[in-house]
Write a structure and sequence with these properties.
By secondary structure, this protein is mainly β. 3% of the residues lie in helices and 38% in strands. It is built from 1 helix and 10 strands, in the order βββββββαβββ. The strands form 3 sheets. Strands 1-2-9-6-7 form a 5-stranded antiparallel beta sheet. It has a 3-stranded antiparallel beta sheet with strand order 5-4-10. It has a two-stranded antiparallel ribbon with strand order 3-8. The model has no long low-confidence stretch (mean pLDDT 89).
Length: 121
C-alpha cells in the first residue's frame, strides 16, 4: 500500500569515513505499517542495487536519532517506537560506495508481525 513511499527519492548517498574514503551508502526509509512499529520488530531489508544483493549482515539501521545499529542489535530496541511518518536511515557497507548517477533499487522491508499467531482452540 505504501510501497512507493518506502525510500525518499533524493536520499541515496555515499557514506565516508574520517579520511574521506567511501565505505558504503545510505538512504532514508519509511515504515510500511500505517500504525508504525516497535523498532525491535525491524528485521532488515531485501536489497538489490544495480544487480548486487546486500545481505542483512551488511546493513545498519538508524532510527529515533540513535547511532546506526546492526539488525541483531535492533532486537533489543523493544521500548523504541518507529512512527509511520518518521524517517529512518538504512546504511549499507560497500567499500568504495556507489558510482555517481542513477541506480536501480529492488527493496523489500522485513518487519515482524506485531499481532502474533493464535491457533484454533
Amino acid at each position: 500500500m505504501f510501497d512507493r513511499y518506502l525510500i525518499r527519492k533524493d536520499s541515496l548517498t555515499n557514506v565516508y569515513d574520517a579520511f574521506g574514503n567511501a565505505i558504503g551508502f545510505k538512504m532514508a526509509v519509511r515504515n510500511s505499517n500505517y500504525r508504525g512499529t516497535f523498532a525491535s520488530l525491524v528485521n532488515g531489508y531485501y536489497l538489490v542495487v544495480d544487480g548486487v544483493q546486500y545481505k542483512r549482515e551488511s546493513q545498519r539501521f538508524e532510527v529515533n536519532g540513535k547511532k546506526p545499529r546492526t539488525m541483531d542489535e535492533m532486537k533489543n530496541a523493544g521500548y523504541e517506537h518507529w512512527n509511520f511518518d518518521d524517517e529512518a536511515w538504512l546504511y549499507v557497507e560497500k567499500p568504495g560506495g556507489l558510482s555517481k548517477g542513477e541506480h536501480v533499487i529492488l527493496f523489500k522491508q522485513s518487519v515482524f508481525a506485531a499481532y502474533g499467531y493464535f491457533p484454533d482452540c
